[in-house]
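Step 1: inspect the first sequence and its tokens.
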Amino acid sequence: MEECSSRDRRHLNLEAISFAAGIGSLRLAEIAQTAIFLYDGMKTKMLLASGLPGIVERSIQMAKTPKGLHDREMMLKAGGVLPVPKGAQIHIQNLNSGEKESEAPARPSWREPEDRLREIYDLTDPQRLPSPEARPVATGGRLDHLQDETIHILRDE
């Protein structure tokens, strides 16, 4: 694609670009969408980070006014003075906390069926499971006779 002129780049479609790159058009679309998503996420974080000091400063100014009850409450919650109720819809990031959350190692949720079966087997430990009490089955019923008749018919053929 670097060898193409700017005019050619405007007129090339997605299929031509993906063919030249040696990948499928769906994969190229996936790569482009992922890049756009990551770019927008980084842009959002940068805008928030650059605007956050001004927002906090303005909120503190408003908190000092007689009508700044909501701003005072939010600043006290952000500072850890007021507790945040359980199930709250806001997330306050405590940047002053010296503690770091320990990250659990990422494990894939998919395991092979044999591994799952082994895990279930190990958890249940079949030797310790109580056997269910069952009444003895009386032989000589109609089903037993049907089985015998079927065996005789099959042997005769």
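Step 2: inspect the second sequence and its tokens, then contrast the two.
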Amino acid sequence: MIDQAKVLANVLMEIEDYTFTKDLLVKPLDPVMVTKTFTRPIPVLNEDGTQVIEGDVAKYDTEEVTEEVESPFAKGIVLALPSTMDTGIKVGDTIIYPSKFAIPFDHYRDSVFVKPYDVVARIPQI
């Protein structure tokens, strides 16, 4: 697990020159993996290895497969707050947000912008 206090201290020294006006600057943590069950089609085969066709339609059977996949939500450490934001979120808090709405910030590596209204949960800094 990443030591959040060290990451926060290192990053804050590098981004002191920026004042953000609209979005949270977030350092994403390792992806959260979840277990999901999928139903997949399997073609039904004849004894000679060709697919069974009934009428004009190929015949399929199904199987359930359980896989570990990346969650659509991500965790991250708040690095900077917008100057206009007044919610309970503070620098150093861990937040959970939908990863598809995060916008990469290329001025600082491995960081993303997250809209304050996209934050779905907050874990306060200890």
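Step 3: confirm your contrast with the notes below.
The first helix runs from residue 4 to 14. The beta strands are 24-28, 33-43, 53-54, 57-58, 60-70, 73-80, 94-98, 103-104, 112-114, 121-123.
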